[in-house]
């Protein structure tokens, strides 16, 4: 491990022991919380010293912690579905007993993500969504991650059964680089491949305590990447949740799928946790999922030069290029020496994706953690998360992530007012490969394109001289050139596939990646509020990060060199309540510096005003930013014979002479292709490559009406500067020679859009409690209000989407249910892979559960997309059908 990283960890631990030594005299607070009617002990109840420490009850309703507050002080006891109780403590503070009355009280959840300090969700200075452990257990979707799509303003791109990417407020992409995800404080993004992998490897469903989602800019507290939103997922403490939990889930998918038979979906998970003397605790998690994946079967004819679809098929279009067909990207335009084919463009015959990609989806997740409490306010954690998975990801091409692994390893010490944390993310691409390259290289190994096109031209001309029509001659020519071509399922085809996928992409002449990139991160935060007697709340924090890229030239420009990227950041926040606590003002600022770019300040200021009890108006101005990702900076990937993706740093542009032998803009080259007039060609000049930033304005209202109806609404306006966009350039590889359709190189790279990109939108959410029913609904609107100026901005967001739901955890004699309906309208999807229209769709998820208390078991029957109406979330990705399942949860809670 890097020396700086190791020294930082040692310094952090030393500081912690010093703080523990100097801690003030503390008062122990302990007791139990139960239901007033049933007398059942309640787990997960939040117990807070007003203005101070907070904890939660364990599985038997017991809590115990210490505070430096002197008596008298007030305890606040809150729990979803129960009326909040406040009790002033003047005498004994141990062996307390509290009973909560069930009542339709919404908006009482305590959140941390919005300000990095505990606060009621009603009082959050910015928009925030929270999903509790109870809500996760009641989710209708097969996995909690899929259920996040029901949250207000959330959109999801599904690339495979176990690979979903979530986003908020526009610019949705398959990797979603503008959206941060953290698991127990660790950045969940793969350092090399740049996508978040929370639902491939990460927390198991049994170990998730809660998830908090911040739509909109959040860089002021969470750094680069959170320009559109941040998701924080927290696992369960082994002190609070002890015992053995086992869940067995099995089901079916591909029901009524015209391409394949229904197949089994299995998902098994286990968690065990144990605490000793309330000082030492450990937990272990394991989950295993196996299923047949959704298949991408979009065979629409695609014009890659113009990024538009065509009305053709392999039979009718000699230059057919199917969206999910690979190898047919290779084409040639015949010249005068080709006789009747002069001026005709012909592509090779490709292979459908299902012949190339490994659809045997699997996911294995493991977690182990050791916790030690020095006292009730100081805890040390050593944690290891490791997972291996096989899935499919859509980037510039479709990638088969076969045996992809990722490990995250953390050391942390935390108290009520601070944390010090160091972790590393270790990514290994395993047997992952590029499906597009695989199709192309199988063709080339079987028969080189020079030979194939020669045979095609000869057969075509012979057929035309024999009196055949153009269409008939095209078919004869293709059959002749394809004679003996290995077919999927044959021994010859499998041998070629195995050979190509065993060799590395680029220098190795194959399709396999060899990425072993690592991330090292050290960070800390301290809250000075208590030292200031809570007159004003001040917290500060900092982090140091190192990316170590290692792909052996298969992904990055690191074949002959090592690439390290260093980042440093620091932030401070202050908040103060005024006017009898009716107004809370919060201000924060962060500074970050990446070695390749200028430093960046990102301020945030917000105000929350209580217009009536449990009714608050919030206003905020905040800035967000993101450094270009590791791929935005250093990628160097040959994706087709004449097409390469390169990073936007000057050294990559110089490597391919794009500053001296300038590339032409795609739009001007398209005009040249149509007219043959070289005067329309426009060379592109690169400017300075900068981090992207956004100025985000938001006004919102969150209020509780008659303790039954919770309303949350907001309007936002975003203005982006230096927006990082894709740009496609056509370069003449031999300057001075005439530019021709068969004489060019294509580069896809990254540059800042010089125009200010503007978006705006709103969302409204309603939650209503009626008897034992929870009725939910939300609608969101997002709009891009500026032109692309020739840059591919990839907004990829429908203007309108809405969700409707009804659920109950116990509607009658331990029977619960949940029904969710989700709809979104048609929209245009743009990406380096393909651009096309995603049709509107609506889908229903539902489940019914029955709790068997004596056996400590819960049986659940449900499904996602239960009406089985196949749909796609993003162009070029697979169609998603129903998953029907039954699960059995055994939860043995040990004291």
TrEMBL record:
Residues 122-230 form the TonB-dependent receptor plug domain. Residues 1-24 form the signal peptide. One of its GO terms (molecular function) is siderophore uptake transmembrane transporter activity. One of its GO terms (cellular component) is cell outer membrane. One of its GO terms (biological process) is siderophore transmembrane transport. Pfam families: CarbopepD_reg_2, Plug, TonB_dep_Rec_b-barrel. Keywords: Cell outer membrane, Membrane, Receptor, Signal, TonB box, Transmembrane, Transmembrane beta strand, Transport. It is a multi-pass membrane protein. It is found in: Cell outer membrane. Its main location: membrane. Residues 382-866 form the TonB-dependent receptor-like beta-barrel domain. Belongs to the TonB-dependent receptor family. This is TonB-dependent receptor plug domain-containing protein.
